[in-house]
């Protein structure tokens, strides 16, 4: 369908909405989003129509989709601030502040933006001592707020790695928010159009959203990429694994220096290691764990490099499975074996795992060290962003504690 057809549909939907015929307007807006999932005008109109029809949850989801496409549009942020005021006060405050930046100060938006300042915390007992049978009055303590000048205004997703974002897309699919999931997978593919995991995720999200033909096109692309991978023997999982990819070749070059009685074990371990990497690229972290374990078990003690890379592989797989504590343990195992082999990417992954379990101070340490371990300028900038975000969250923890 051409842009002209979509423009004509938008005109019809807007006319229905102007005449207060919100049911008809919503139907047309929804059709447009099915044709073009990135049409901000349609998502915005759908949000207004759903609100007028009394379906607040659908209205919020529509405005959230409009916000993801264009996060700087003031009316979208303002509407979300009002709709979320009772449901999610913290997010409501954030949207109100963003709306004020775009459309200027508004009495109601200012009220929402400042609604979480100086909240009173009610306690039944002001004493820290436990005493039975004691009758005390309720007291109110003013909550401490973080001074505005100490808050970094950088709006960045906390864990901005591809693995974390794909996990977020999967969760959206589980919740039934298929449009948001599709958008997440598309964003991932903009950064790496050859990522098999992202194509599979997009296919799954499209299928559950009812777009079977588009889903099949994505699956066809997956088959093409897998075939290319087999032909070229290139394992291109994502940036977080780029240091693991060359391990097989590097390890094979060492085989000539190993005793004859160990060569068979080494070859088998390398095969298990390679299989583990391939399974990770195919979004199968559970089976890849078993392969990395066998690689470690079969590798001779002197094969430090292979063992280190296998432990790092386990760390990546466990991170994909959202087993962050175990992921950290595997990264530590690799570091203990050879502290000099620690890369900036490994430290960044450890930091992301620490952050995922809210150990922000440890995360900061990892991100700080990662900056000086061979990362490019863009990755260093990302590390600094994560450091700033973690430090802000540390302050929030202290405030809540």
UniProtKB/TrEMBL annotation:
TPR repeat ranges per the UniProt record: 40-73, 269-302, 308-341
Coiled coil: 212-268
Record keywords: Coiled coil, Repeat, TPR repeat
PROSITE patterns for this protein: TPR (PS50005)
InterPro entries reported for this sequence: TPR-like_helical_dom_sf, TPR_2, TPR_rpt, Ycf3/AcsC/BcsC/TPR_MFPF
Record keyword Endoplasmic reticulum present: no
Gene3D superfamilies, alphabetized: Tetratricopeptide repeat domain
Protein name, UniProt field: TPR repeat-containing protein
């Amino acid at each position: 369908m051409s842009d002209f057809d979509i423009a004509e549909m938008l005109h019809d939907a807007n006319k229905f909405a102007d005449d207060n015929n919100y049911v008809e307007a919503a139907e047309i807006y929804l059709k447009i989003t099915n044709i073009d999932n990135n049409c901000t005008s349609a998502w915005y109109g759908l949000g207004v129509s759903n609100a007028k029809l009394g379906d607040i949850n659908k209205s919020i989801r529509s405005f959230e989709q409009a916000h993801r496409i264009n996060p700087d549009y003031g009316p979208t942020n303002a509407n979300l601030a009002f709709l979320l005021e009772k449901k999610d006060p913290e997010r409501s405050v954030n949207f109100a502040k963003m709306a004020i930046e775009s459309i200027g100060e508004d009495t109601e938006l200012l009220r929402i933006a400042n609604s979480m300042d100086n909240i009173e915390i009610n306690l039944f007992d002001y004493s820290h001592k436990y005493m039975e049978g004691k009758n005390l009055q309720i007291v109110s303590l003013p909550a401490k707020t973080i001074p505005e000048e100490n808050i970094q205004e950088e709006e960045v997703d906390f864990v901005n790695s591809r693995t974390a974002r794909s996990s977020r897309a999967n969760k959206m699919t589980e919740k039934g928010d298929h449009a948001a999931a599709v958008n997440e997978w598309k964003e991932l593919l903009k950064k790496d159009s050859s990522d098999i995991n992202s194509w599979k995720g997009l296919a799954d999200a499209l299928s559950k959203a009812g777009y079977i033909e588009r889903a099949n096109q994505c699956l066809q692309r997956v088959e093409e990429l897998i075939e290319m991978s087999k032909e070229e023997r290139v394992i291109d999982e994502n940036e977080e694994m780029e240091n693991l990819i060359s391990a097989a070749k590097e390890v094979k070059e060492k085989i000539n220096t190993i005793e004859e009685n160990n060569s068979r074990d080494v070859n088998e371990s390398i095969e298990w290691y390679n299989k583990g990497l391939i399974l990770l690229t195919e979004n199968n972290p559970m089976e890849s764990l078993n392969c990395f374990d066998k690689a470690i078990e079969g590798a001779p003690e002197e094969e430090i490099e292979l063992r280190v890379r296998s432990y790092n592989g386990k760390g990546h797989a466990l991170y994909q499975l959202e087993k962050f504590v175990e992921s950290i343990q595997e990264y530590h195992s690799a570091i203990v074996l050879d502290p000099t082999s620690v890369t900036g990417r490994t430290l960044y992954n450890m930091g992301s795992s620490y952050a995922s379990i809210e150990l922000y101070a440890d995360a900061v340490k990892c991100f700080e060290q990662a900056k000086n371990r061979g990362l490019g300028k863009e990755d260093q900038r990302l590390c600094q962003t994560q450091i700033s975000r973690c430090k802000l969250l540390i302050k929030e923890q202290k405030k809540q504690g």
